[in-house]
Automatic annotation (TrEMBL), chains A, B:
The active site is at residue 289. It comes from Nitrosomonas oligotropha. It catalyses: Release of a C-terminal amino acid with broad specificity, except for -Pro. Zn(2+) binds at residues 288, 292, 318. Its cofactor is Zn(2+). Its EC number is 3.4.17.19. Belongs to the peptidase M32 family. This is Metal-dependent carboxypeptidase. Keywords: Carboxypeptidase, Hydrolase, Metal-binding, Metalloprotease, Protease, Zinc.
Length: 525, 525
């Protein structure tokens, strides 16, 4: 798909008469490549600092690290807003853009997008957002601990003002909330999301109600107990590497919150946490992060440390982690393949379990208050609730002060439960404390992409179930590598989905998948 | 000793008539502080990358990391050679320098020194040195593996030319070799070193010969065997923290070569390696690195991330590691205090050992080929040999091509042994492959400083032996903190030694220490 950028040199050789201008063009482009690669390298350094802070840094170093990060962020900002970079980009964009190859054009387009994002906003607004983000986080931590939404409300109000102002600077043609969504899922707007989310509500609310009221509930008792941490770690590492995680170009460590980080496609670092009371959580979080990691390791970095080789959007990234976590690892053939290995790790706990009881136990559906602990059926409703609130805040139909009440009403309406405190309700997520509005939809967009991709894979490789059942993940990984990872930023998410699956995002696959799977697990009519 | 820099503001208040110029001065100085702190933060980031590379980074990431490091090095170089920094420094240096406090003057002096070091050398020479250093290292690795000095000789010849040219740029008033030494041990020249090293040769060569020919040799058999790595690690961590290593602001990890790194005095990271065949090596390397770490953790960083708060020189740093390794941990009271703890960790191996036999076993003296494995008596001769060769190369009295022969002759003359190969001889150290001439003397300067400092401590705190014997290291650490660590770069090494001990560097303490200690261990007449 990608090809090394030889086009220009060949043109020079073939059409000598045009050589002078071609060389100039090439020099401009080489100049751009150098600037962009330096920015990528410095971002890689920043990622290493972030990873180190979460995984390695001694607690006493936090002040010094904050200063190091602030200084490096300043250096990166200088480079990204360097007027010489802007000139170079405009020069390339305005002259002979069409003569360049697909990848060169993509690098210019993406770099220009970032440049404008960084330069369109006034320094005053950038600083105010950064300060509010830093202060907002600690206000939120305390408010959440003390269950005091009123303390957090002023931060939220101010963020709404600033993020509206920000949206008008960067994307004056978009609705402010769409401009915020655009940051996480480029090109996806409320026009697309709202009808899809309405459809999900329509299908999932009755499905969840049916599951809840049904007398047959899976036995999960054998997942309780004590599970030795060293066994959990061996198991997680084995499965991650079976999936194709390249440990020669990555690491697996422990941190408070699992994440996928690292400095480069050859240095991809995932983390998890091990609890001795719950091995499923850590195992599936390693599988989830491995999905992210395979995307990063699969990027076409041999084409340079350039924007075109980067991962596409939050939603597409999440589609890769959820593809492995849900489509593959929560499937029956996966359980069949690993059940004896897992039982051998915890023989006493899983003594009387079977492949089937294990499959049903890890696929229970139960409404609960906390999004990050939700199962795949209830998760979308957590997201939709947040989406509707963000939409309402930006269009003025909701007020910040009413959020606790709105939140609880929607929880009751969608999941049939009401959080006893705001800590377990409107205050649970960190996103808003940093001003990250528009992020939440990408979780459910990712889930739907994953399902649609999986459906295409099944069509193109009908032996996939058998491959999973025999632990042969190579064809699956190769397919994702080729179809998604190696495409970098060449297409928009909408184009990519259509190229891979032959149609735009279609929630039917997700709805059908959930309905079929859970009807069978819960023996629904 | 240090005081927060309030002097200027007070002056402003007291002498209103001078206020305008004082404020300007203060603004200049604040401007400088900001620039210097940013450089310090970026250097801290660079150190984190270095640590990560040795301890954490997956092997496959080395190319990407090299590019990240090169880009960051470029950013730091830009900042260090920023003409605005130079103007600011000259402004401060030329106007009212005397009106500033001791610490401010030190920051300006040190920053100017670094600025001139970076800007006096042409870009061409900087690049050629960097390229030769990078290429030289891999040439050396292969030459050493294949025992082919002739392959390495051209690199060494070119480095000599370049480092002579470099010396003429940065310190035209110094002999070229002195300019190279100055980089590692500021202010110390051949005039000082040569007579001291002559004295050491005169004393140590006969001492080593006497030890070698003496019939009484310590029993070291109980140090051979298998020592569980987990026990070694627990022991090393305990002793490091007993010494005062603050693990809340530091880490202990494993790497191929032990080192002390980290990004800040609140983030000091030491490493070691554990071999199951030898616990003494890893334990004493942790103690050695802890000595370095206590220096870093003891720096007066509350005064800002500024040059005046940095460690002084290589020699003074080495004095701190050797102070703890040799003066404290190779002493009889230290062995007495820890012997039962050590024996409890390895009961089978140390069954029949005693405090005395343990003390004698860890203090054996035996000439061998490799510097890094040498004991404290033979080590100085390894250093002197290298010093004499470097001196001879720079003054033209020696030729690179003759080095293998010269090396082996001097080994025979000083230690009575001849390396069977150049791999075990002239090719063993990496220093010259990177052009680091003038580094070696600091090892033995450090050893002599350590001994002289210890002698002063004994005079000022006569209960030190008793403190060691009871594991009370607090008064020792506090003394080093106050006398050395918190002095930062306020004085030259020569001034510091004189301030702490009341006299200039005096090799007598070192010579007497070795003669007394080893006469007793080897029962010499």
């Amino acid at each position: 798909m990608f090809a090394p950028s030889l086009g220009i040199d060949e043109t020079c050789t073939l059409f000598k008469i045009e050589m002078r201008s071609e060389i100039t063009m090439n020099q401009h482009y080489q100049n751009l490549v150098q600037k962009l690669e330096e920015i990528t390298h410095l971002n890689g350094v920043m990622s290493t600092l972030g990873w180190d802070q979460e995984v390695m840094m001694p607690a006493g170093a936090s002040d010094a690290r904050a200063k190091q990060i602030a200084t490096l962020a300043g250096v990166i900002h200088e480079r990204m807003t360097d007027p010489a970079l802007g000139e170079c980009l405009h020069e390339l964009k305005e002259k002979d853009f069409a003569a360049l190859g697909e990848m060169e054009r993509c690098n210019i387009r993406e770099a220009l997008y970032s440049y404008e994002l960084e330069t369109k906003v006034s320094k005053r607004l950038v600083q105010e957002l950064a300060e509010l983000g830093s202060r907002g986080h600690s206000v939120w931590v305390t408010a959440r601990q003390e269950n005091k939404f009123a303390d957090f409300a002023p931060v939220l109000k101010r963020f709404l003002q600033l993020k509206t102002e920000w949206a008008q600077c960067v994307s004056p043609d978009l609705e402010p909330y769409d401009a915020n969504i655009d940051l996480f899922e480029r090109g996806t707007t409320m026009n697309v999301i709202t009808p899809i989310f309405e459809r999900l509500k329509q299908e999932l609310i009755p499905l969840i109600a049916a599951i809840q009221s049904h007398p047959v509930q899976p036995d999960t008792s054998f997942l309780q107990g004590r599970f030795a941490l060293d066994k959990q770690e061996v198991l997680a590492r084995k499965i991650s590497q079976d999936m194709g995680f390249n440990i020669e170009q990555g690491r697996i460590d422990v941190s408070v919150h699992p994440f996928c980080g690292g400095s480069h496609p050859t240095d991809v670092r995932i983390t998890t946490r091990y609890k001795d009371s719950n091995f499923v959580e850590s195992l599936y979080s390693v599988i989830h992060e491995t999905g992210h990691a395979l995307y990063e390791q699969g990027r076409p970095h041999e084409l340079g440390d350039l924007p075109a080789t980067e991962s596409l959007t939050m939603g597409i990234h999440e589609s890769q982690s959820l593809f492995w976590e849900r489509m593959i690892a929560q499937s029956k053939p996966f359980c069949a393949h690993y059940f004896e290995t897992i039982r051998a790790a915890f023989p006493e706990n899983l003594q009387s379990a079977t492949v089937d009881s294990f499959y049903r136990a890890i696929n229970t559906c139960k409404p609960d208050f906390i999004r990050v602990e939700a199962d795949e059926v209830t998760y979308p409703l957590h997201v939709i609730l947040r989406y509707e609130i963000e939409k309402g805040l930006f269009d003025g139909s909701m007020n910040v002060d009413d959020l606790p009440e709105i939140w609880n009403e929607l929880m009751q309406k969608y999941l049939g439960i009401k959080p006893p405190t705001d800590t377990l309700g409107v205050l649970q997520d960190s996103h808003w404390s940093g001003g990250a509005f528009g992020y939440f939809p990408s979780y459910t967009l990712g889930a739907m992409y994953a399902c649609q991709f999986y459906n295409t894979l099944l069509r193109e490789q009908p032996g996939t179930g058998q491959n999973i059942a025999t632990g042969n993940f190579v064809p699956i990984k190769n397919w994702l590598n080729e179809k998604i990872h190696r495409q970098g930023k060449l297409y928009t998410p909408q184009q990519l989905v259509e190229r891979v699956t032959g149609e735009p995002l279609n929630p039917d696959y997700f709805v059908e998948y959930l309905k079929n799977k859970y009807s069978e697990i819960y023996r629904l009519a």
